[in-house]
Amino acid sequence: MELVILIGLQASGKSTFFHQYWAATHELVSKDLMRNNKNRARRQAQLVEAALQASRSVVVDNTNPTVEERASLIELGKLYGAQILGYYFQSKVSDCLERNQQRTGKARVPDVGIFATNQKLVPPSYAEGFHQLFYVKMADNSAFEIRAWTEVEVADG
Ligand SMILES: Nc1ncnc2c1ncn2[C@@H]1O[C@H](COP(=O)(O)OP(=O)(O)OP(=O)(O)O)[C@@H](O)[C@H]1O
Ligand SMILES: [Mg+2]
């Protein structure tokens, strides 16, 4: 059973990555699916816990930019004995802004949201309790390049 935590700016490709790599085998938990919920952090925790309790693997598809937000998820994962995987999306703010401009309807977020997340974004580290960490980068042909983690490399782009 796995708990997969995606980490990255808005429009860095997280949801697309989920659909390509995980949709067939893992449950999706995303705050984007709970727009009308007042306490989305609590709802998210409930959904993650329900999945793990039932031994279902789950992907948390949110920006998850801070150590604190990830800590509550990691704690839940450990409680249920899940393998905890983190995927950090290496992306430039300018590229995310551009992709965001190309989105339509509800998918497009205010640019200020991307700047705010970038301010808060702290790359993950093994010290937080992840069992495995990876870098993800958008590649050509709508593909993603996944690379092994090195604690020293945290650059964007
Ligand atoms: N590998 C890729 N190559 C090129 N474009 C991509 C790739 N993956 C996603 N995109 C495009 O980038 C945009 C953002 O992707 P996506 O919606 O998956 O990002 P996100 O990280 O889930 O954003 P949010 O946090 O706002 O939900 C989309 O318009 C998508 O079509
Ligand atoms: Mg998304």
Could you characterize what this model shows?
This is Kinase. GO terms for molecular function: ATP-dependent polydeoxyribonucleotide 5'-hydroxyl-kinase activity; double-stranded DNA binding; polynucleotide 3'-phosphatase activity. InterPro entries: P-loop_ATP/GTP-bd_All4644_prd (IPR017101), P-loop_NTPase (IPR027417). It holds the Pfam family AAA_33. One of its GO terms (biological process) is DNA repair. With 157 residues, the chain is an alpha/beta fold. It has a single domain (2-148), classed as Rossmann fold (3-Layer(aba) Sandwich), CATH 3.40.50. It contains five helices and six strands; from the N terminus they run E-H-E-H-E-H-E-H-H-E-E. Strands 2-3-1-4-5-6 form a six-stranded mixed β-sheet, sandwiched between helices. A hairpin with a 5-residue loop joins strand 5 and strand 6. The chain is globular. The chain starts with a strand and ends in a 9-residue tail after the last strand. The site of magnesium ion has 4 residues, from helix 1.
The tally of strands reads 6
Global structural class? alpha/beta
Please work out how many helical segments DSSP would assign: 5
The tally of domains stands at 1
Mean model confidence by pLDDT: 94
Distance between the termini: 31 Å
Low-confidence residue ranges: none
Q: Tell me the CATH topology.
A: Rossmann fold
Strand proportion, as a percent range, falls in 15-25%
Strand order of the largest sheet: 2-3-1-4-5-6
Per CATH, the superfamily is P-loop containing nucleotide triphosphate hydrolases
Shape: globular
Identify the CATH architecture.
3-Layer(aba) Sandwich
CATH class, please? Alpha Beta
User: What is the CA-based Rg, rounded?
Assistant: 15 Å
Main sheet specs: 6 strands, mixed
